[in-house]
Amino acid sequence: MEFDTVIIGAGAAGMMAAAHLDGRTLLVDHAKSAGEKIRISGGGRCNFTNMHTDPKAFICANPHFAKSALARYTQWDFVALVEAHGIAWHEKTLGQLFCDNSAKDIIAMLHKLMQARDVDLRLQSSVSGIRATDAGYSFTLATPEKTHKVTTRRMVIATGGKSIPKMGATGFAYDIAQQFGIPVTATRPALVPFTFADGRFAEISGVAVPARMHADGPVFEEALLFTHRGLSGPAVLQASSYWVEGAPVFLDILPSGMYEALRQQRQIGGRKNMTTELARHLPARLVEHLAGVFDLTGNLADWSDKRLDALMQGLQHWELLPNGTEGYRTAEVTLGGIDTDALNSRSMACKAQPDLYFIGEAMDVTGWLGGYNFQWAWSSAMAAAADI
Ligand code: FDA
């Protein structure tokens, strides 16, 4: 079998690239269906992009790398594509755009575009023995029916990262990079819940509060959820992408207006227990837990300014030391990947091997939570497609 382009990985990036390529294209995936992560994303409604997409919302060893692709295929380009296919959407929060109906609409759109280009999609298929030849690449393709010898002029690796192995995630892209001498930066789970060895939040698991959280990066102001194993929720997942093992994380759960309200309450009497007063502003179960962390004894009326200020400071700068994360089992993405120094930022082609491309999550480009990672899949795929 002869192709102009072979794409390995029929996820968001691979399908998007295949949907925009001329010539004979083969798209291979070992999964039963294409776009499985799209299907389950955004609670089944796919948070397909973010209105505020900006290179600053992406983590990469080279902070300039993503600029070109994001500028050339923007969030609005993808919104226009979605609208052209009659897919209704809405903003949920913080610029996050979701399908009104179902994530399956995005998958169907990509299939339709691929069909229009006659893309040869092979599912439940695997690729082995990739070799560079004078004319491009050759390899063995094992489909459920038979084994083929395939030759192609170009290869696009779109096999994503290592997150959620149960869904078919593999380190295939990194293995190919290694085979062709392309550097890979250290990889680790990101957008992932934190765990604590002592299960200290087990008794308040299920409690959620608005919070501000950071590790070694920006402060994220979103919801935080206490779990049996530790901390989860959007603020936590965001901070996890900037966390280094062994380092603390910083939590601010002070509700806005609480400090002023407590001072006022103290002035007009405040003969109630401090925990009762706090429970007017924070979930009662959380206050119970906090009583084991901070000294909350006594009536509000008896609290000095100094003591009250110290508690407010404590709630604003709550330092915690996670013992780890839930790992690739639940991580939404993989941080790190194909070193962007080895890639051309306009085309995603390898500088040393211009007919080999890496796109999507396999690369060392990781977006924040909120539609940024799909936008990177679309933008990087379009950069490669434009070059091909
Ligand atoms: P992706 O992982 O989508 O595709 C890779 C494909 O390669 C898969 O189909 C896989 O089967 C295939 N493959 C892997 N190894 C192979 C091999 N050896 N041989 C053949 N095929 C192979 N992002 C976002 O922006 N908004 C959101 O709402 C969400 N929600 C979300 C929920 C959950 C639960 C997860 C796990 C992730 C998200 N994400 C997200 C992240 C987003 O799904 C992710 O960044 C993109 O899917 C990455 O697209 P790629 O095409 O690069 O990889």
Task: Please characterize this protein's 3D structure.
This protein has twelve helices and 22 strands. Helix 1 runs parallel beside helix 12. Strands 1, 2, 7, 8, 9, 10, 20 and 21 form an eight-stranded mixed beta sheet that branches. A seven-stranded antiparallel beta sheet has the order 17-16-13-14-15-12-18. Strands 3-6-5 form a three-stranded antiparallel beta sheet. A hairpin with a 4-residue loop joins strand 9 and strand 10. With 388 residues, the protein is α+β, with helices and mostly antiparallel strands. The two termini are 20 Å apart. The chain is elongated and about 85 Å long. The chain binds dihydroflavine-adenine dinucleotide (FDA). Dihydroflavine-adenine dinucleotide binds next to helix 1, helix 2 and helix 12. This is Flavoprotein, HI0933 family. Keywords: FAD, Flavoprotein. Its cofactor is FAD.
Total count of helical runs of at least 4 residues: 12
Task: Estimate what percentage of residues fall within beta strands.
Answer: 25-35%
Beta strand count: 22
Helix content: 25-40%
Mean pLDDT across all residues, rounded? 97
Structural class: alpha+beta
- Morphology: elongated
- Bound small molecules, deduplicated: dihydroflavine-adenine dinucleotide
Report on the biggest sheet: 8 strands, mixed
